[in-house]
Amino acid sequence: MEKNNKIAVIGAGIVGLCNALQLQQQGYQVTLFDKHGIGEQCSKGNAGHFATEQVFPLADKSLLPKLPKMLLDRLSPLRIDWRYFTKAMPWLIRFCYNMLNSKYQRHTQALKTLNKDAINAYARLLGNSFEEHVTLRGSLLTFEHGNMEEIRKLQNKFLNEGVKVDILNQEEIQTLEPQLSIRIKYALLFTEVGHTADPLQLSLCVYNKFVASGGQFVQQQVTDITSSNQSWKLSTQQTQHDQFDKVILCTGAWSKRLCKQLGYKVPIEAERGYHNMLTAHALSRPVASADRQFIMTPMSTGLRLAGTVEFAGLETPPMYERAACLLEHAKSMLKDFEDVQQGEHWMGPRPSLPDSLPVICEAPDHPNVIFSFGHQHLGLTQAAISSELVANLVAKQPSAFDISPYSIARFQ
Questions:
Q1: Domain of 287, in residue numbers
Q2: Tens digit of pLDDT for each residue in 366-385?
Q3: The whole model's pTM is what?
């Protein structure tokens, strides 16, 4: 720690915030950089679901026969902007390649390993603030059809990976969540997952702890990272910041530019998601729909409808119809929702890699640069556990499990 005690963390989303707090708590002098402010991208608008049950990669070959219908359906969870299609094609080809059975199984194990202790890692990081920001009531995955064989098969798939899950019938669903429609026949109850009632407030809690322990925040965009006399210099549009012993790169969907500057290729895509924030209250835990592919999460200010996948790049203006259509799904799933009005619409770019795994590693050719980005749909879920892995890399200590599956070397 005496040799490497001044650290720059670039990116103040939930992943960067957890890294900054973790390192500051361990005695390092940490400076956090972000031009947008604290938790202002996906960390502000995500579904608030600590989705530790999501151990299966998105690159699943069962998706292929569904794609044509999904791309033509207005209410579909998937959209590819035709103007962006050629740019997205290399990523999509890699995505399909990762559907191979051997890769799918390997990536499942890597996701399961990260998720297994993810919520406990938040408890360790937040301390006595944990219960204020994390609610552990489980979550539901609903089915509007009655194909018990298919539901049982899915349950067993989760159970085989160590995910605790029960099947609920219609009566049990109504007891648990009375405002769900009776058109929902069955549900899977994931008993060991949680949610936060305000993702932005969680980010601000982490930030406040970081500042209270001596951390510094610079609201500027880092434009260059250069090595100088065995230390690192960060340039922003306003000034230069010198003498960092280590740099942690946590810039989410914007990571490609700085990685390229350092000489690393990373096939990261801005997989855009939307939310519709309603003032109505309805549920006590996250409820996802297997049929409609979206999620409803109770928030302190109402009900957040979230989901959809859109490939349109980082610069294309939002298509807020994607958020508006989520209300149509909610009205079909909830009682007494016919007169509920549209809420506040939001869009944010998830940092997605084609194998559904994040990059968490030391840069192969830059021993004092550490990567922690690309957590796709699981940035909120995996932020705290990722910060423990990064802290081990900084201290050159072994991790609790093998982190080689998350190395950027897989793309070089």
A1: 50-101+132-197+268-352
A2: 989 999 999 999 999 999 99
A3: 0.96
